[in-house]
Amino acid sequence: MKRTWTAAAVAAGVLLLAYLLATDPVWRQSAWLALVAGATGSVYAGIRLHRPPTRRPYVLLLGALVLLTAVNVIEFPAWHASDSVLTVATALELLAFPTMGLATLDLVRLQTPHGDREGVIDGTIVMVALATLLSGTVSAAALVEHTSILSYALLAVAPIVLAGVATAAMRLLLVGNQRLPATWLIAGAPLLALGGHVLRTLSQSAGTYARGGWEDLPIGLSYGLVGLAVLHPTMVALAGPAPTRPHRLTHGRVAILGLALLAAPATMVMTGRTVLPFIAAVVLSLLVLVRLWSLVIERETGRDEMRRQAAHDPLTGLPNRTSLLERLDDVLARRSSADPADAVLFLDLDGFKRVNDAWGHAAGDEFVLVCERIGQRGAVRLAERLIAVLSEPFALAGGPAQVGASIGLTLHTAGGAGAEALLAEADAAMYQAKQRGGYAYEIYGVTLGARLQRRRQLEADLVDALQTGGLRLEYQPVVALEPRGTVGFEALLRWDHPDLGAISPVEAVSAAEATGTVGALGAWVLREACGQLARWNASAPAHDPLTMFVNVSARELLDPRMPARVAGILADTGVAAAQVVLEVTEHAALDVTGTGLQTLGALRLQGLRIALDDFGTGYSSLTHLQQVPFDFIKIDTSFTTDLDVAVDNRAIVAAIVSMAGHLGAQVVGEGIETAAQLDALRELGCALGQGWLLGRPRPAGVIGGAQLSGRPRRERDAVAASPSAHPPLHRHG
Ligand code: C2E
Ligand code: MG
Ligand code: MG
Fold it and tell me: Between the CA of residue 491 and those of 12, 37, 580, what are the distances in Å?
């Protein structure tokens, strides 16, 4: 294929050379005819060879070349054709050019299936300007020679045709991003033809033109280019949609349009004529106006789109929170006291995470419905129906899926809360519905209101507590069960609120998560715990170091700076990474994807170990065990509680212990309160334990030396594992 193309290129070059060098007119014209016929053949062969998806533009090109071949046959000097026959030949030639232009425009059209209004306007401006210039100069000069009406008409049309063809070629170069070899060849041909014809006409009117002169070179070249273009394999891509670029008014474009506006006055000055340039000037000004107008419209629609995007959620296309609040404000402003209550329903999909996990979408799943004047009965009925409808299984590409919904409902009567507050109420009610297991609705009421107020107060006071030292830690021993001995401590957050009393760490952490202070809170806990660990280790230098178990929230893991922060705290407190175990609850671990997983990976690389806390309370535990290499698995209190009586729980714990063994993780039994539970766990092969029986969480100050050194040497060696290889803690040897 490549060889065919090269051969065709060489052949075209040789024929062109022969034309320029031949002295005998018959030979010369034969070479020219062969060149045109060769180009025609190449176009035909190219279409057959490459089979473009749309053949129309190339068939048009073929038509143009067939016409040009006919012209050259007529003009063959051996016939001694009469003047009128030669004029017909010129007419055919002039027909060939628009055909070529149409072919080029057709290619442009195929590349821009969605239209190209700006390109069309720009092209028309350039074309009118070119035609004005050409008709004012070239044709005017040639006009003197011609007397017949036909040739006069042809000369009047010629500049427009030539300008049109040249503009089509320029448009082909400007659309799309694909400047393929075929693009250059096809666009180059009409530009060369235009140049050649201008040269020819000028030298004809100066009386210096003779066939075979250098003025013919561009025209001959243009024939060659058309043939070679269609013979080139890239012609296929040229006849299909191209990645288009927006027609911004770049400096280059403005310069071209500005020059185009100068065409009319320039023609006026050069020719001294006024009518034609005047008309051209009017047309050009109108076109530029249209172009500017379309630019303004485009800007406006772009701004509308931006406004629309700012007010809508990109995934669902629904109005987003900002526009929700605006609309809700409108609704509240409109109501009168006699109206039934408005309702705000806060809807969260249940089990959506599972769908996400299985089908791989990442998206928020909270929706808000604002129902004007619906009344309580109507709102409740709507909530019930929504839950029923949403709980039905639906078909996804990957198979059937099922979610449910929790809905929080709040009602608004005249003079009630504002939009923000209503939303918070509905959110709180939804949270309540979720807490109850989901798939239900909850109406915001007074108790919920009190809870919400407490929550707001906690959120506000937590920041203070962090700064003024209102928080503290208690430490609960983590104990090796066989033989018995303390291997470390779990740090547990305590907050004694001045008004509300003791706040559970779960509530405190949740408030911190809501206010974005969870990173600061986590850092404080870790620094405090590590400082304590360093003091304990320093106070008993004869013993191997203890391990500190520190709880982290899943939100903390979403901060990519977290590993660096942890490293800084370890360095400051002088604690080795291998002495610290970070605990992530199973519920939290369910949300650990993407960034969270990377953070866990980075922390492990730093030598810290990771524990899966409250194991058995989440629902897709096994998948997550696979994703994160946990070093410890802490069996949730709920399994320990009935261990001595419930056979099921024993079986489950046995299975967890065996699975953990395979994964290289150590098992910690939580919530051991009785000797029977302890025995059961030990029998089942659980290595470590925690619970009131073994030691309650207590402030560091009351944890005595006996507890710190109550560990047999063997166990201590194991728990202070080296960061690179974390060996199992129990039963070696
Ligand atoms: P957890 O990590 O599973 O901690 C164990 C919880 O069980 C602690 O509750 C502890 O006091 C309690 N516990 C220990 N032994 C027994 C027992 O024998 N029986 C019973 N019934 N309970 C026992 P606490 O201190 O209320 O902490 C609750 C949860 O709060 C923790 O569960 C942990 O997930 C979270 N948490 C605590 N401190 C922090 C912290 O500093 N940061 C984060 N992110 N979460 C924390
Ligand atoms: Mg824990
Ligand atoms: Mg736990």
Answer: 87, 92, 11
